[in-house]
Amino acid sequence: MKFRKATAIAATMLMLFVFVKMNGDVSSFIATVKTEDATAVFSSSQTLTDEEKKQLYNAIVVEAESKTIPPVDAKIDRVWRAIPGYNGLVVDIEKTYETALRSPRDDAIPFRYKEIKPHISLNELGPQPIYRGNPNKAMISLMINVAWGNEYIEPILETLESKGVKATFFLDGSWLKKNVDMAKKIQDAGHELSNHAYSHPDMKNLGRAEQYNQIAKTEDLLKQLLNVENKWFAPPSGSFNESTVQIAREQGLQTVLWTIDTVDWRKPPAAAVIRKINANLTPGALILMHPTATTRDALAGIIDSAKAKGYAIGTVSETLSSDRILPSVEGANVF
């Protein structure tokens, strides 16, 4: 009896859909279909007839449009400069239908999704500095600039490991040349390694050739010593000019700054740093730190605070990518 009633309702909805489609007002019809009603009526079964399968497929098509989330294009912001895009979501109708056919009769439709890339990507914005990820993406990154502070690196790595977090370490080339084993330890722990110039210079005060060499020497070391295919350059002390960004881009790198600075080199109390991060954390934030005693002591609290606010923590590459964080929608599976 329950199944016959469901079939009758399904047939009625299908006729309504056909009628509305013939009258060219599909979007208005879809707006009236509530998710819970559609998923309950069109629950699937391994014993559906051909007509019932057709009804199921049509129900998925109808609801798919209302579940679409459009992608967000990368853009140049007046304040934040280059901001990455964010992938949209669309129902994968065929995968949803195939999964629904294998599901128990009374289950809701198990919608499956696929991501849609933005029309404009970060790379298409040209040479621009980047200070943050997309504000629609609830992910942040820890940027650890390394030119000194070896005594704090291992305890920092231990905290990151215990919290299940991967960070991006920007390595000074002269430090890397002298500390290959430590760099490999960072790499072996699964963290991202990137370019922090060669001798921690004030980049904006260098000539074009000197800027090029500062980036190129470290890039060569990353490739030769660690086999790193790098994408990012973080100018020491945040010092750069338009030439810096252009020169980095010529070497295949994008220039990354930060959203929040811990200013840990001034040795503030760890509790003060945790409060600062907690108060200023926003989606897409890039948090600057160094291997200092303050960061060693504040790191666990920073991570806990971010997770408590619902943020995922990823590498700079992960945060600045347009990829969505999974699960992208409640109960969704993205393929």
Can you walk through the features of this model?
The protein has 2 domains: 2-71 and 90-114, no CATH class; 127-320, TIM Barrel (Alpha-Beta Barrel), CATH 3.20.20. Helix content is 45%, strand content 14%. The chain has helices at residues 2-22, 26-32, 35-41, 50-66, 93-101, 150-163, 173-178, 180-188, 208-226, 242-250, 270-280, 293-308, 316-320, and strands at residues 75-77, 81-83, 88-91, 112-116, 139-146, 168-171, 192-195, 232-233, 254-255, 260-261, 286-289, 312-314, 333-334. α2 crosses α4. The longest helix has 21 residues, at 2-22. The protein is elongated.
The count of β-strands is 13
- CATH top level of the largest domain? Alpha Beta
Q: Please, how many domains?
A: 2
The major β-sheet equals: 6 strands, parallel
Query: Could you name the CATH homologous superfamily of the largest domain?
Result: Glycoside hydrolase/deacetylase
SSE arrangement, N to C: HHHHEEEHEEHEHHEHEHEEHEHEHE
Class by alpha and beta content: alpha/beta
Which shape, going by the Cα principal axes?
Answer: elongated
The low-confidence runs, each spanning 5 or more residues with pLDDT under 50, are 1-45, 328-332
Q: Approximately what portion of the residues adopt beta-strand conformation?
A: 5-15%
- CATH topology term of the largest domain: TIM Barrel
Name of the CATH architecture of the largest domain:
Alpha-Beta Barrel
- Give the radius of gyration: 25 Å
Helix content: 40-55%
Distance between the first and last residues' Cα: 36 Å
Number of helices: 13
Mean pLDDT: 88
